[in-house]
């Protein structure tokens, strides 16, 4: 009988790990009504000491950082020692601000100037604000915000992780991630899956676990054991070894035990992802998100600029397929040069293909650039539109794709309407890909970003599985292959259910491919169909998951 | 007081790394040095935030002044530094 306490969350990246907790402190704000200093000179001394502590800390980090990070940290330490900044804070103290308030205000004054300069200068604002946040925390006697420097393999615990926290996480020392907030598609989840770090989100009271406490994290079951028993640690160790051995032995194309081919593909979001995924053992790209080309641009990227980027993305995949999703922007991901105005409900507004229909020249330029890049690299480029709801929209899009000289046009199935009417929607296209994250959002009427509603967005929800089944059935009428790109495809058990429903290909974070390949190799198509029937007959998401797990091959479930 | 005018050589302007190298050299000189656009108010060249907030771009002219023993030599060194493309190095 185990004695340790187990907290249940949502596993978003598989595998297990155990180690001491490192708490990521949240950002600190100066108290709203910080009193004016009784002794201005003493307060100034306190402010200077706070800045100096930050400078010393940053210099210590610079000494151990790599050649890219070190100069930035050194320059940031210099900001903390800046005489102008100290003088600004001193003036605020004399005017009656408390120490933390004075620091924040002095920093903000420079930050505003930097932002006004734009370009390279504005990029340094984050560093300056980091100095400010650290100095405010130091002045208040609180821990510095962000991930502290790791000295040993550790479990990173936070309310939620910001992109800035995760950019510098060392894979060798950050052995697992646990967050109290966040959801299945949060930044933390995506990052952890990309890097293959076991992760659990939505863990109650995670931020209250004292730093240094030993925890065992199970990213498959979504469990965190506090002060775990030796037996559990041993179980996890054995499972890790078996898993590593089983995954190392799996290679090549995705095949069921009876030889049915299910291509295993990568989800990528940029040139770096493409270069990393290219040499890996996978059959191409099942989802290339092109937003990054547009989101940071202030003017529409030209045909030449886009051709150059797409050529770099396609180049590592010569002879293999690359499925490209055209621009998926909208009111929640606004473009500086294609603003259609604010919307009350951006998830249901003019986004995806609807935006392309409003601004067809944007789409046509993108398609031309994709055609040129495909020509230049020999990649098997296939292009699909996001947010398609009707057969007319699919036909409109396919016409534009073919006019640009691209051979294969497809649609994303994210809207339940497109799934239910897939026989008609897919009649004029060459393929479809189900985006299970958005499909779940629209089927369950639940905001993807609402972490507290994660249960409704469980990809095992039988209603979502039913809608996937409907999409596959309609695709089968015309022999139009229907793939899945989304979180579901990377879950080894759910992947089996999807294949049983008739899904033709699976696209996921590259780190998830080996486990899915292994799962397929241990089951026949008929067994997958049985598992699909079991999932669809379940009453709840949890029942579906449990029943499928119980019916799957133990050689798979013992390592999950 | 000795003064020099120089055009910024760094292709991205006087920002993080070039600014850091410049300010480090100023601090090492141990005398007051100012930097500013010709005809405008100058700032303390020993303040990295002041120097960055100037927002001097590639090819833009700035005026340096220094006050102390050997000010001319210090200014010559600083001018030589600013003329280089520090980002490309």
Automatic annotation (TrEMBL), chain A:
Segments of this protein annotated with the region Disordered: 1-36
Compartment(s) where it occurs, according to its Swiss-Prot or TrEMBL record: Cytoplasm
Domain PEP-utilising enzyme C-terminal as annotated: residue spans: 253-520
Main location: cytoplasm
GO molecular function terms attached to this record: phosphoenolpyruvate-protein phosphotransferase activity
Keyword field: Cytoplasm, Kinase, Magnesium, Metal-binding, Phosphotransferase system, Sugar transport, Transferase, Transport
Major enzyme class: transferase
EC number of the protein: 2.7.3.9
Domain Phosphotransferase system enzyme I N-terminal: 8-124
Needed co-factor(s): Mg(2+)
Annotated Gene3D superfamilies: Phosphoenolpyruvate-binding domains, Phosphohistidine domain, PtsI, HPr-binding domain
Pfam families, A to Z: PEP-utilisers_N, PEP-utilizers, PEP-utilizers_C
Catalytic activity, reaction form: L-histidyl-[protein] + phosphoenolpyruvate = N(pros)-phospho-L-histidyl-[protein] + pyruvate
Domain PEP-utilising enzyme mobile positions: 151-222
Coiled-coil stretches: none
Family: Belongs to the PEP-utilizing enzyme family.
NCBIfam families assigned to the protein according to its UniProt record, in alphabetical order: PTS_I_fam (TIGR01417)
Chain's role: General (non sugar-specific) component of the phosphoenolpyruvate-dependent sugar phosphotransferase system (sugar PTS). This major carbohydrate active-transport system catalyzes the phosphorylation of incoming sugar substrates concomitantly with their translocation across the cell membrane. Enzyme I transfers the phosphoryl group from phosphoenolpyruvate (PEP) to the phosphoryl carrier protein (HPr).
Protein name in the entry: Phosphoenolpyruvate-protein phosphotransferase
Species, as recorded: Demequina zhanjiangensis
Automatic annotation (TrEMBL), chain B:
Domain HPr per the UniProt entry, residue ranges: 1-89
Cellular compartment(s): Cytoplasm
Signal peptide: none
Main location class: cytoplasm
The keyword Cytoplasm is assigned to this record: yes
Keyword tags: Cytoplasm, Phosphotransferase system
Domain of life: Bacteria
PANTHER family per the UniProt record, alphabetical: PHOSPHOCARRIER PROTEIN HPR, PHOSPHOCARRIER PROTEIN NPR
Name of the protein: HPr family phosphocarrier protein
